[in-house]
Amino acid sequence: MVSKMKYYISILLVLGGIYELGAALDAHYYDKTCPQAETIIFKAVRDALARDPKVPARLLRMFFHDCFIRGCDASVLVDSTPSNKAEKDGPPNLSLAAFYVIDAAKTKLEKSCPKTVSCADILAVAARDVVVLSGGPTWRVAAGRKDGKISRANETLNLPSPSSNTSQLIQGFAQRGLSAKDLVALSGGHTLGFSHCSSFEGRLRNFSAAHDTDPTLHPQLAAELKRKCPKPNGDRNAGQFLDSTSSIFDNDYYRRVAGGKGVFISDQSLLGDYRTRWIVEAFARDQGLFFKEFTDSMIRLGNVGVDESGQVRENCRLVN
Q: What's the pLDDT score for residue 237?
């Protein structure tokens, strides 16, 4: 009885946190003011994907990086000025790309529905659309986010790192009202990912006093990565896809992690921690379960830091 009571209290606390963070959002927010909003965003994303297969991974990562700093307020889209170095120029965000897709959608929306659709909502919808266009699940994106007025590069140092362990990741997610299950589900976004050598080179050579190579890294993958990244700080374009079906949204990422073939320390550590191992193994076995949990976690992520005091930017790169 006591354990059940603790369980119910935990659920209520989680639900209470979600409600508090996402109180301003509504799936029908633009029904009257801009009913064509999602169609316009979808077309902009689809057209960009037709020209650049990297768009899905780039936009999904952009959404994650936006929501983890100041919440989902499009602060990651703001350009730096002489007096302010913005988030997109913070060290973890220098590899972000495809901002032009959000710009294209915003330009069309400003013609159809001036000063109505926030850049934060555009990014949230675009993140859903790239998953769908890559063969993944769909979900209703609740809208009503406002665009933040502050964007600071130094705050991006709080983003999760590829070298983070599971305890560090769980702590970072908890600070944003997200659970260990959300951590594992959202890590599945790496199914669309590619990484440059610099993000995992530390696992390949001089890993520790006892091991030259990270012992949790599968020997076959270690040899493959060493071939692709023969020199520390070598070819900046060299790297590795994070799963074997990099253009398809599926559960292959979890199969690889379960087999010791996670590219990042942050990926592989999910298998080594009792709090997350069972989730990785469940998602590796059941793609449908992963899809369900991923959509639920994306909805929770999209609720983080919703700010009713923001604005609707006319240009996503500039604060009004």
A: 74
Mean pLDDT of 110-120: 97
Which residues are annotated as catalytic? 65
The answer to whether 289 and 282 are in contact (CB under 8 A) is yes
Predicted confidence (pLDDT) per residue in 220-273, tens digit: 999 999 999 987 766 667 888 888 888 999 999 999 999 999 999 999 999 999
Q: Let me know: does 252 contact 262? Beta carbons within 8 Å.
A: no
Annotated binding site for Ca(2+): 66, 71, 73, 75, 87, 191, 245, 250
- Binding-site positions for substrate: 160
Domain of 130 in residue numbering reads as 2-160
| C-alpha to C-alpha distance for 198 and 234, rounded to whole angstroms | 9
Task: Look at residue 104 and tell me whether its pLDDT is greater than 50.
Answer: yes
CATH number of the structural domain spanning residue 283: 1.10.420.10
Number of domains in the chain: 2
Q: Give the global pTM.
A: 0.89
